[in-house]
Design a protein that fits this description.
The complex is a heterodimer of chains A (348) and B (417). In chain A, strand 1 (26-31), helix 2 (34-52) and strand 2 form a beta-alpha-beta unit. Chain A has helices at residues 2-23, 34-52, 65-73, 86-94, 145-148, 167-174, 182-186, 189-200, 214-220, 231-240, 268-279, 281-284, 287-290, 298-303, 306-309, 316-319, 327-346, and strands spanning 26-31, 55-60, 81-85, 121-134, 158-161, 206-209, 226-230, 245-261, 294-295, 323-324. Chain A is of the alpha/beta class and 348 residues long. Chain B has helices at residues 2-55, 61-65, 67-75, 86-101, 105-115, 119-130, 140-147, 154-162, 170-175, 196-227, 230-245, 248-259, 264-271, 285-309, 313-321, 326-354, 358-363, 371-381, 385-410, and strands spanning 178-180, 186-188. Chain B starts with a helix and ends in a 7-residue tail after the last helix. The chains are: A alpha/beta (348), B mainly alpha (417). The interface between A and B is large, with 36 and 46 residues.
Amino acid sequence: MRTRSKVIAALSIVLMTGSSMAAAEQVTVTSWGGAYQDAQREVYFKPFEEQTGIDLVEESWDGGIGVLRAQVEGGNATWDVVQVESEELQLGCDEGLFEELDWDKIGGKDRYIEAAVSPCGVGAIVYNFVLGYDKDKISDAPAGWEDFFDLDKYPGKRALRNGPKTNLEIALMADGVPPAEVYDVLATDEGVERAFKKLDTIKSDLVFWEAGAQPPQLLASGEVALTSIYNGRVDAANKADGRNFGIVWNESLYTLDSWVILAGSKNLDAAYKYLDFVGEAENQAKLPMKIAYGVTNPDASAMIEPERLKELPTADENMKNALKISDTFWLDNIDRLTERWSRWASTN
Amino acid sequence: MAETMLAGPRQTRSLKRDLARAERKRKRNAFLLVLPLIVFVLIFFVAPIAGMLERSVVDTDLMETWPKTAEAVRTYDWEKDAVPDEAVFSALAQDLIRSYDDRTAAAVARRLNYDISGGRSLVMGTARKIARLDQPPASWRDTLIETEPDWGRAETWAAVRRAAGPLTDFFLLQTIDHQRDIDGSIVPVPTERAVYLQIYARTFAIALTVTLLCLMIGFPIAFLLAGLRENLANLLMILVLLPFWTPLLVRTAAWVVVLQEHGLVNQMLQFLHLTNGPIRLVYNRSGVIISMTHVLLPFMILPLYAVMRTVPKDYMRAAHSLGAPPFTAFRRVYIPQVMPGIAAGSILVFIIALGYYITPALVGGAADQMISYYIAFYTTDTVNWGLAAALGTGLFAATLILYAIYSRLVGGVRGVM
């Protein structure tokens, strides 16, 4: 008899905790994993849970609109907020995979830099594709992509990402096209021809990388002298591995990652609260101290130490001659140009 | 005597019945035992493959999103003019506005973009602009062509016709570097875009090279292992299995470190004065072949070893005593007996190698990517599932054909895979 009442008591406790857990508000946030998500956990996820009492469940992914489509079209999406790349933002918005944002709930459009505002997404970070080199091995800093193609001045192999995106832009800038005109030139057949011709000049000295972790490794091992690289990876290699890598900000290519809310999210309120939280200047200002990405709230930049600000993509000095990667261009042309690129890469 | 004569047939009949019943029961039990496997294979193997084959020829995006346009395009008399009349344009405009409102236009935009560069912007841009119109214009034909001049081009309409579904050969043709021109006849694609046949050839060449290398390296090892005492063989087997249990990614990354310009191999070669400068071993074909051979070697050794252990040593000795020189005995007595192992190992390695993705992606250059790289690219990056499925179908078909040829050549080998 006594045992039975114990069991009943235990069961009722389990049931009660179960029901009280179900009652607590919850939001599932999906980001890119790795060092970046570690930083986000510290400056966004945990403080958000503490301040609001909302349960934040973390997930990570590595991109692909197909994954999002499966989430939404399956009708039972388990994710609420997702950080997406700019291309997925545009595709998913066109397809109705994301909620259209109610900007009043997240501090209004004026809170953010212009590039961060779009119908379905709010910019999370700004990051750049830069020319990277090892300062220990190269003392006179390259000035831009023209130097990347100069085999006499900077002998040795160089690395680029495998695929046409970013590389055709780089080739054109190296050939003297100003950043502002790159996509106009690239939109013509002659422009594409011109880019591939420029790439031909260094083809025998080119190495291609697939994953963002590769270029720092290539630089560190001395395999290549120059490489295209994400600015955050340079900073991480310098800080964590004691490297002395340099960045050329001139003519760098930048893009944004954005937060979106998946259409039909069951935790819409909590999702908005989360977006509002990560949009606040004082919260954003903490992120660049952990990882070298630029943030989208201009007031946040004012709160960052000038020393650190200098190393971020959003610093005025670094943004001066930068090119924003055009999603429209690549969404229209990626299939064709990838075939062209594959052909180019496999013939000598 | 007469009694037995009478009883005989009846007894046989009931015995037959019993036998048949027992046989049926045995068959039913056997069937029930394999049933889980059959169900598993059907759900997780046959169905996905059938789905993939279907996706490479079924093309219903435009038809489902733009039913009026698809219908109008099908009934229009294209002999007259390559840019259709007002009726077709009006159907297009209605479909465009409706699909823009219910957010389905992106599917058609994507489909047209596979065929014509800029097709996506054309659809989304036109939809955005005409959705703002307050009332229908006098002529949709003039309005649409004015909004986006591409609607007045024969190429655009040829692409719309090709996408009108429900079936298409567009993706399959693309995988053999062909396309249909405006008149609908099949022509080769321009040289600078003809890539897929080359990639298929590359994929098979890499897989074949790796298979042969695995056989060359794996055969002596398996031979040695099979001849050793059991406990010694087990000890050596650890050397084969240890890398087998190490994660693929770790081994591939290790090869990058070993093979790179200032890596172990290059330093050793230079230390021994075999080369003057560093030679390029990674981010090219040699890196891919070396690391894939290493990764796949256990798949060759294990089946070879399994078969070699069962070959009685007496047979070779008998051949020797009958006067066969060692090589002849090996060739005519040993090899035929281990043939099933060679066949199983080779097919296993070859088929796994065909689908390789991670290793070439990390240690290969841009010219060493195998077909799976492109399947992954079109599946996740550009979401061109039709082309991804068509490439997969090509690989599947080619593998089946090669397997048929192979089993014909090897002949006699039964019960292997």
